[in-house]
Amino acid sequence: MTPTGKQRLAMDRLGTQAEAGAWCFIDKIPKPPADVLQAAGNPRIRPAAMPPLGMIGMVLGAPFELLLMLLSLLAEAEEAVKRALDTKEEKEQRRAKKEEDRRRDATITQQGLDKVFDGDWHGDAGQFLLRWYGHSTHHQRMLFATQEGIVLAAPPKRVSVGREKRLQVVARIPASEATLVDPFSGEFETRLLLIRFGDGSWLRVDTEELRSDLHMHLLRQPLPDS
Fold first, then answer.
1. What is the pLDDT of residues 47-98, one digit of tens each?
2. Of 167, 164, 196, 204, the residue nearest 179 (C-alpha)
3. Residue 1 confidence (pLDDT) above 50
4. Could you give the residue ranges of the DSSP H alpha helices within the chain?
5. Residue of 84, 122, 146, 175 with fewest CB within 10 Å of its CB?
6. Which residues pair with 179 in a beta bridge?
């Protein structure tokens, strides 16, 4: 798949050749045990607060937020009317979609993938997670899948606008150390991906888009036993 315009600009700026890329984020990092924190040098485990410019933007944008909420309510009302007028076939499709969503959520919980990582602070994923906001205090990462492995890029500090213009490589994980995995191999439409390390530990990242460029890239890869 050809990279998007923004992805191509980001790759050119970073000097990175990637097969796919997408913006992603992680869930809230649970508080590590005191001895783990101390051994790691008491790292930051939260992103930086929103910059003043971003806070001002939120205040100025409040009236627009109210307008968007009103439009959203109107859209929901319209959708409710459409559902009431659905044909039998359309109602069946909706029920099937809800059942699929329930099955997806139950599978995520059963496999423990509703957590940010596997829970072992001494594993490779746990140790990498401890360094996550030491690499950058921004709350998002641009994750690239390359032939050499995984590249994570972000602004060095949290920004409210212009994140692409401030991108820097903040971490590289060689393919020999970790791989990017869709744990459901495309069975479910999700934002969830795993960075699975060589010791079996894993870190969950969520892409901004459902079935992102990274998901589609992984779907095109041959199965391990093929």
1. 999 766 555 545 554 566 677 777 777 776 677 667 677 787 877 877 888 8
2. 196
3. no
4. 5-14, 34-39, 52-60, 62-84, 88-110, 124-130, 132-135, 213-219
5. 84
6. 196
